[in-house]
Automatic annotation (TrEMBL):
Family per similarity comment: Belongs to the amino acid/polyamine transporter 2 family. Amino acid/auxin permease (AAAP) (TC 2.A.18.2) subfamily.
Keywords of the record: Amino-acid transport, Cell membrane, Membrane, Symport, Transmembrane, Transmembrane helix, Transport
Compartments in which it is found: Cell membrane
Keyword match Transport: yes
The protein's name: Amino acid transporter transmembrane domain-containing protein
Span list, region Disordered: 13-40
Membrane spanning residue stretches: 50-73, 79-103, 138-159, 207-228, 293-312, 332-353, 396-416, 422-441, 453-480
Domain Amino acid transporter transmembrane: residue ranges: 46-479
Domain of life of the organism encoding this protein: Eukaryota
Taxonomic placement: Eukaryota, Viridiplantae, Streptophyta, Embryophyta, Tracheophyta
One MF annotation (Gene Ontology) recorded for this entry: symporter activity
Presence of the UniProt keyword Transit peptide in the record: no
Length: 492
């Protein structure tokens, strides 16, 4: 899942809102003729390479979604699980190549640049599809805020329970509620949300990126150790057996697994922004396709190891969050480190995703009510030993309300796998498949009903069906969980 760099897309989209919907506005800086310090669009010379692009993609994709892969493979089995991971990798790579060709309009060397995902949609498709793309994008950001709150509370509970088990020598069931931890996480986000702009949380993003590799690596290592301790690979060829779940539950869970895998893989929303950092020649599209191949291959190997080792360790009992498996409480201190790393990562990840949404709403409000002091006026608050802090009343109220809303929804629906399945299903088809396919068809002027057009549309329809099935499975999971869940009480 794109956890870090995706914010670049949404931030730029918010800042360039006028250029996306009003084609008469030109935000391109003046061209600096004859200067070796500037690119063909007048901006400072880009310095990105295939390796920097690969690093951006891997850092963004490997996030909390990796923790659900063992559970997803447990629903699909040793045949279906790795096969679905591999197929998703192929689809992601292929549509990424289509999207890479949409960075420039027309000629891949001299054509006009599209700086953001929404710019590309505006240039190639235009009309209502630009607004639809923005709507899907920002709803997805809101959903990620909910998913991250749930994931953080689960990890905080895991730390408490592992220490409780250790202190009681496993005699105490150590039941606890996620509600207090969601409130703690929400309070932290209210504080961090007052950082005015995404540009000022670079340090938080870097810390979050390091933490994602930390907990993913620990999870993979513990899976390998658990398999060695068991002396065998658990699991079956077809996944969780009937009896452990009903036939209907097995079908819904398999559908939900597709959403979990989609959540873990998607990075299309940030691809154009990463491509905009690349220096040429060769063409940015050529470099980006190579970077996509390297990063998707690397990520797939990493996901295979994490997901398969988790399934091999736990079999049908693979937990929704790999690190919360009971067998991993020894060595409990190592699991605690991993869970603390998750919480730190999610604190930063929440801001990386939500800051662009904050900026978008605040820009819209300032445009609609330009004379409102409540919305536009900043007040300086002196801080001893530091620069004065500028407080904007609208920012304080709106961002606090947003965090409170995501926290309350998380308390009512604290189901990690179900929620990320819904998010993954909601964003996968439109942002990873539909828009890239439609933009590519429009740009390359592929004739309707031709062989290539039919193949592309078939791919889009198949992915749409998969997304609908994944969403249905995740919603069914939420409904089933709500039957036994008691809000604001101890459920774990």
């Amino acid at each position: 899942m794109a956890d870090i760099s995706m914010a670049t897309n949404a931030t730029a989209a918010a800042k360039n809102q006028e250029s996306q919907y009003d084609h008469s506005v030109d935000v391109t800086p003046p061209l600096q003729d004859g200067s070796k310090s500037f690119d063909d669009d007048g901006r400072l010379k880009r310095t990105g390479t295939v390796w920097t692009a690969t690093a951006h993609i891997i850092t963004a994709v490997i996030g909390s979604g990796v923790l659900s892969l063992a559970w997803a493979i447990a629903q699909l089995g040793w045949i279906g699980g790795p096969a679905v991971l591999f197929v998703f990798a192929l689809v992601i790579y292929y549509t990424s190549c289509l999207l890479a060709d949409c960075y420039r309009s027309g000629d891949q060397v001299t054509g006009k640049r599209n700086y953001t995902y929404m710019d590309a949609v505006s240039t190639n498709l235009g009309g209502s599809k630009v607004k639809l793309c923005g709507l899907i994008q920002y709803i997805n950001l809101f959903g990620v805020g909910i998913g991250y709150t749930i994931a953080a509370s689960i990890s905080m509970m895991a730390v408490e329970r592992s220490n409780c088990f250790h202190a009681s020598h496993n005699d105490n069931p150590c039941h606890t509620s996620s509600t207090p931890y969601m409130i703690i996480f929400g309070v932290l986000q209210i504080i961090f949300s007052q950082i005015p702009d995404i540009d000022q949380i670079t340090w938080l993003s870097k810390v979050a990126a390091v933490m994602s590799f930390t907990y993913s690596g620990i999870g993979m290592g513990l899976g390998i150790a658990k398999v060695a301790e068991n002396g065998k690979f658990k699991g079956s060829l077809t996944g969780i057996s009937i009896g452990a779940v009903s036939q209907a539950q097995k079908i819904w869970r398999r559908s939900q697994a597709f959403g979990n895998i989609a959540f873990a893989y998607s990075y299309s929303m940030l691809l154009i922004e990463i491509q905009d950092t690349l220096k040429a020649p060769p063409s940015e599209a050529k470099i980006m396709k190579k970077a996509s191949l390297i990063s998707v291959s690397t990520t797939t190997i990493f996901y295979m190891l994490c997901g398969c080792m988790g399934y091999a360790a736990f079999g049908d009992m693979a937990p929704g969050n790999l690190l919360t498996g009971f067998g991993f409480y020894n060595p409990y201190w190592l699991v605690d480190i991993a869970n603390v790393a998750i919480v730190i990562h999610l604190v930063g990840g929440y801001q990386v995703y939500c800051q662009p949404l904050f900026a978008f709403i605040e820009k819209c409000a300032a445009t609609k009510w330009p004379k409102s002091d409540f919305i536009n006026k900043n007040f300086e608050v002196p801080i001893p030993g530091c620069r004065p802090y500028n407080i904007n009343l609208f920012r304080v109220v709106w961002r606090t309300m947003f965090v409170v809303l995501t926290t309350i929804i998380s308390m009512l629906l604290p189901f990690f796998n179900d929620v990320i399945g819904i998010i993954g299903a909601f964003a996968f088809w439109p942002l990873t498949v539909y828009f890239p396919v439609e933009m590519y068809i429009s740009q390359k002027k592929i004739p309707k009903w031709g062989t290539k057009w039919l193949c592309l549309q078939t791919l889009s329809v198949i992915c749409l069906v998969i997304s609908i099935a994944a969403a249905a499975g995740s919603v069914a999971g939420v409904v089933a969980d709500l039957k036994v869940y008691h809000p604001f009480k101890s459920n774990y």
